[in-house]
């Protein structure tokens, strides 16, 4: 059974940083691409960043230059380093493992 466990969310001031982690178990993690999504109140879930099995990454335009996705295949873990955070980054962040597995979500709140 595949499980994704996220951690690292919290409350941060604008301009601050957070690092999210997503640990996967029960899957051939290293062969899949992984992704981070987010969902703000009243909005649809949106793709934030994706990383391939070889480490190539792509980002939503809204986070380019501020967020970095990375992975540690030995630890079955994907990370999202978020810098220069803005209030509009406030959302619940989810990791996704194909074809259908989601983490429980971790809240990120950017506020002064």
Please tell me about this protein's structure.
It is a single chain. With 112 residues, this protein is mainly beta. It has strands at residues 3-7, 10-12, 18-25, 34-39, 46-51, 57-59, 67-72, 77-82, 91-97, 101-102, 106-110. Strands 2, 4, 5, 6, 9, 10 and 11 form a seven-stranded mixed sheet that branches. Strand 7 (67-72) and strand 8 form a beta hairpin. The radius of gyration is 13 Å and the shape is globular. The model has no long low-confidence stretch (mean pLDDT 94).
Outline the secondary-structure elements.
Layout: E1 3-7, E2 10-12, E3 18-25, E4 34-39, E5 46-51, E6 57-59, E7 67-72, E8 77-82, E9 91-97, E10 101-102, E11 106-110
**Order of secondary-structure elements:** EEEEEEEEEEE
Q: Could you estimate the helical fraction of the residues in percent? A: under 10%
Number of continuous helical runs = 0
Kindly name the structural category. Answer: mainly beta
Task: Name the average pLDDT.
Answer: 94
Largest sheet: 7 strands, mixed
User: Which of globular, elongated, flat, extended, rod-shaped describes the shape?
Assistant: globular
Q: What does the radius of gyration come to?
A: 13 Å
Low-confidence parts, pLDDT < 50 over ≥5 residues?
none
Ends apart, CA distance between termini: 40 Å
Sheet-strand content, in percent, reads over 45%
- So what's the oligomer here? single chain
Number of DSSP-assigned strands: 11
Could you write a compact summary of the structure shown?
This protein has 112 residues and is mostly beta strands. 0% of the residues lie in helices and 51% in strands.
């Amino acid at each position: 059974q595949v499980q994704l466990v996220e951690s690292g969310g919290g409350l941060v001031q604008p301009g601050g940083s957070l690092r999210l982690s997503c640990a996967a178990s029960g899957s051939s993690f290293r062969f899949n691409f992984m992704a981070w999504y987010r969902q703000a109140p009243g909005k649809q879930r949106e793709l934030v960043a994706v990383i391939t099995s070889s480490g190539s990454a792509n980002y939503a335009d809204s986070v380019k230059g501020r967020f970095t996705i990375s992975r540690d295949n030995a630890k079955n873990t994907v990370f999202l380093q978020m810098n220069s955070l803005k209030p509009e980054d406030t959302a619940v962040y989810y990791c996704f493992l194909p074809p259908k597995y989601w983490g429980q979500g971790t809240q990120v709140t950017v506020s002064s």
